[in-house]
Every structure is written in structure tokens, then in C-alpha cells.
Amino acid sequence: MELLPHSPAEFGSARYWDRFFRQRGQRPFEWYGAFPELCPVLHKYVRPRDKVLVVGCGNSELSEQMYDMGMCEDIVNIDISDAVIRQMQERSGSKRPKMSYLLMDMLQMDFPDAHFQVVLDKGTLDALLTDEEEATLAKVDRMFAQISRVLQVGGRYLCISLAQAHVLKKAVEYFSQEGWVVRVHQVAGSGNKQQFVLPVFVYVMTKFRKIPGSAQQILEICPEEQDKPMRVESTERLVAAVRDRQHYALLCSQLGKTPCREQVSLDLCDKQSGKPRYTLNVVDSPSVKPSRDNRFAIFIIPQGRETEWLFGTEEGRRQLASSAGFGRLVTVALHREQHYEGMAGIQEELSGKVMELAPPGLPARQQVPFLSVGGDIGVRTVRHRDTSPLSGDFVVEDVKGDGTSYFRRLIFLHNRNVVQSEARLLAPTPLPGQKKRRKDKKKLSPAEPPSAIDKSYLCCEHHKAMVAGLCLLGGPDPLPASLAVLVVGLGGGSLPLFVHDYFSQAHVAVVEIDPSMLEVATQWFGFSQGDRMQVHISDGLDYVAKLAAEAPAQYDAIMFDVDSKDLTVGMSCPPSAFVEKSFLQKVKTILKPEGVFVLNLVCRDARLKESVLAMLRDVFPLLYTRHIEGEVNEILFCQPSPDGRRDPTELGLRARALEGALREPGRPWDSSYVLEDMLQAVRIL
Fold first, then answer.
1. Which CATH superfamily is domain 461-684 in?
2. Assign residue 607 a region: left if phi > 0, alpha if psi is -120 to 50, beta otherwise?
3. pTM of the model
4. Could you tell me if 430 and 420 are in contact, meaning their C-beta atoms sit under 8 angstroms apart?
5. Coil, strand or helix: which one is 678?
6. Judging by beta carbons within 10 Å of its beta carbon (0-12, 13-18, 19+), is residue 257 exposed, middle or buried?
7. CATH code reported for the domain at 260-360+367-371
8. Which H or E run contains 355?
9. What is the tens place of the pLDDT at every residue in 526-542?
10. Spatial distance between the Cα atoms of 156 and 175, rounded to a whole number of angstroms
């Protein structure tokens, strides 16, 4: 039986609809949205005493259900199909005496002005507005004009729609320009893997008298039927908000039918501010054999730990899901600037939403476990927030790590999952003569972490490897009598501070392009300048070029730890200009013949990485590499002479000797930091 039209224009033809309803017979045809789903929204806007007009009624049961439920009885239904009107008159008959069915074209209605309090449209606008041709838009304008004419001031036009972008945009623009208030409801329970994947929306246009000269628009969206409306500032933002919900419904439908081959990431935003509140990643583990109790789980990442490899990378999350033993694991990252009421509050807030991401075959009412590390949500305290013309928005925050350790971090918000700088915080020590706290006394509040910086501890593995690279310096003594070091990129200052404090013979020059970073390092990371530590506020490219022209061969070690602000390139450290051949030659010029150039390379683009390595090999005849396990970072040690080549045994001996010299009596040293271990994985390219 052929019921579909041959062209979209037939949707506006009475002949087509007569044939459609004759062939379909008495079976009701519902475009979308069952009455139980629509009822909560309709109850808000349809009162029992209202006079209601249903345009394009077809043989839908909606009017009958509204009547039978006592929502409203004074209902007039119109349609251009004589066949369906006669069918509906026969079906309702004397059972619903106050409801009528009339053969009428909604583009030319016979009703007097201001005759109805409600006009209800279920799919009729969608059927009419099939394209944006001039003739189609003219018909829609006539439809809207007729609806406006027959509605009283204060009356509501309720349009049930799938909210295609061009349909929603046309309706919103027309009625908002007429001074009407426009509100869009998402129908709860629609788009849930049933007949239609896409959710159903109800446009609620409330008629007001147009005020001459007023350009104010009131546009609102209600994501779910119980939510308070949220104001949006433009038609474009309203259409975008609806589109986001449609994409989410499509995603949930796909996730509910088949396992996802690739990890899916989405943000859930705060209802009031619209800012991201949770970031969810859906991870499926095909290797896990499904049973009733291991199909689905939610993992809450403690605050501040979302940057760790296990939680912040696809490979890490895949390993987490596999080791947790669940077929589908949804990891949940908590955002800064948001307040959370503990694990129980998060579970209550998310329990309904995460079930929309459940895997296929999950039994109804299955209890889904919420997991975490240590059973809590972690601690994050934002200490400082600012913006810089060069670095953009950034924060300094204290977070709780494993056990009782706290860390201070610098985060650039344009890349919020990357820790720019990190330092461990020291636990407070009693003053001389001060008694230690009794065990039963109140401990340090989790919201008040310690503030003193532990300068003996290098948090970043790539910093540890960069310092270990000093073992490659020429000469028989692993600890030279004098050491001139140039560090390009300050961040929080941990790397130059460590070199300055542990190499007492070192003179360190730091080049930093952003003066805000010097303020941050000084105020929040314990950094300070002195006779052996000087910071130069300058572009590293210009500073090195100037030195190459004026004072060549003056540094024993040059270290680049510079992030790139260009996120479109597959290399986030350093900026591409720092690895161009002409600039690398200038770096070589200011390096002593037996010196070492240490570069932190973070490159996800395999071809780009290979070209960078080829460029380095062209300039430096001796090139070592050290990959940082579990991270993208690769530390490159470049030397200007091939004569400095050392075998692994010699490197190990020099590393032990250097570490022994640095570990002076009474000086703190992180026992986990073993220079020899950092060099064991070094290989020559």
C-alpha cells in the first residue's frame, strides 16, 4: 500500500489526504508523541474552560484523549480531507457532544477574530513547511496569520513538532517579531529509542499586543517538562539549543542499540549558568564477558585527577574499563567552578541522565554501581584566577592526590585537561616550641590544603628526564665547576628552580614571553630571582636570535619547555617556529661544543613528528630520545658534536655519580627520583 506522497507539495493537497485516510482506514495515525508524553506539557497551557482549535487534526486520537481525560471539552477540529472529517464525525458521534469536526482549510478559516484561547497543531506545520521555497513560505505565512487572527490576546498557539531547524527558525522569527512570547518544551520521554529517534518538541507561542517600536524578544527553552524555562538571547541560540538536544537523543539511541567502537564524549551543563558541569566519556570493553552484574557502571573521577593518564586519555580510560570488569563504563569528570554535594549528591543528580547511556540488553530497573577512587570525589580549591593577553584565561588550583599529598597546579583554560605546571605542597610543620597536635584533635581541613611549596620534588616526569639529561654534558666530572643554563618557558618555575637549588654552581637564565607567568610563579609557586637566577621577559625566538648574533657558545645546557597556543596543529609543545631549521641553527650557535640542548616535544601528528626529528638530526649530529611512559611527551637530548656519544653503561655511571653529588647531607631529595632510571630508556636516533 503506497501512502507516501510523490512530492513534498502533496502534503498540502486535500486529494492526497483523502486517498491517505481512505487507504489507512479507521486506524488512528499519530505523527509523533503519544498522549501520555504530551499530557504534562498540554496541562500547563490548556485549561478546562478554554475554547480549543485543532488544525490539521487527521484521525489522531489526541483531541479525543484530551476530551476523555477532562482536560478540555470545547474542541473544534478542522482538516482539508473530507474523508477523514466524515470518519472522525462517525467515530466520535454522540460520545463527545461538545467536540466538533469541520471540513476547513486552515489557510482560509471562517471563524471570527479572537474566537479561541488555544490553537493546537500536531505535526501540521512540519507537513506544510517541507522546504524553503517561496511558495511554501507564503503558505506558512498565511497559516500563521490565520492562527494569529483567531486567537485571543493571551491565547496560546501550541505546535507539536520534530523541530527541524528551518521549521523552528521560521516559527520563532515570525511570532517573536509580532511581539509574542516564544517558549520551546522538549517532551519528556520522547526520542527514547521508540518509533522516532529524534525527540518531540512543543512550541508555545503566547499572543501579546505588539508594542510599536519595541524590538524586545522573549525566547525560552524548557529541556524537560519539570524544568524552569531558560531565557536565550536570539533565535540562533534557541535553534542551537534544540539541535544539541536532538544530537543527544540520536547519540543515546545509537548507544542503546549497539556497542560503541570509539569512545564517546559529551558535556552536561549546569541548568542555571549553562557552563559545563560534568564531562562524560562512554567506554565499551568488548573483551569483558557480559553478565547481569557487570554490564554497566559509572566511575566518578576525583576532582583534580582528570588530567592523569588513566582518566584523561582514551587508552587510559580503556584500561580502566577493562580492569574494572564492566562491559560499558561511563567516566565522569567534575568541572572547576562547580559545587558538588559529595558522592551521594552526584549520584542523585546523574542517576537518571546516565541511564540514557545504558548499553543494549541492560535489564529493566537494573541497579547500576557508582565507583570512584577511595569512595570520595576529591578536593579542588581554586587559589587564583586571571587572564593574560598572551596565555588567555588560567587558574591556579590546589588538588588532593593519592593519600594525604596535595599539589598546586597551573592550568590554561584553553586546554583545561593539561597541567601546565605542578608542584607538591609541604605539610605544615610545628614552630619551635610548639606542641604537635594530639591525634584526637581536628586535622587539616580538606578544603584548606597546605601552601608551602616542596622545591625538592619534581612532579612532572618530563622535567625529571630533562634534568637527567645534564649527565650528557662533556668533561670527566659529572658535576662541572660552572654551569650556564638557559631555560625557555617559565610556567610555574619548577624546572629552573630545581636546577638552581640543586646545582649550586649553576647560573640560570629564564626566558618567558608572558609577564603574567612570572607573577604567578613568584606568588604561587615559590619562585624567586637572585644572583644565579634571572628572568628575561622576551619572546624566546628573539632572545635566542639576539644571543646568536652577539654572544655565541655561552651555554652548557639549553632547555625548551614551551607550550603552543595553536591548537589546530598536532604539536602542542613547542610552537612550530622553535623547531625550524634556521632557528635550531641559532640554538646550536649559543651552545658550547660539549653542551646539550634538551627539548620537550609533545606531538600527536606522526608525520609532523618525523619531520621535526629529521630537522633536529640535520642540525645536531648526536640525538638521544627518551619517551615518557603513559604520556605523549618525548624528551630529546641534542648535542652539537658526535664525539660526545656515550654508551648505556657510561651513562649509568655518570648518572649515579651526579646524583651522589647532588644528594648533599641535610638536603631533601625525593627518593623516587633516580637519575639512572630516567636514562635507562634513552636511545640514540
1. Vaccinia Virus protein VP39 (3.40.50.150)
2. alpha
3. 0.70
4. no
5. helix
6. exposed
7. 3.40.50
8. helix 342-355
9. 999 999 999 999 999 99
10. 11
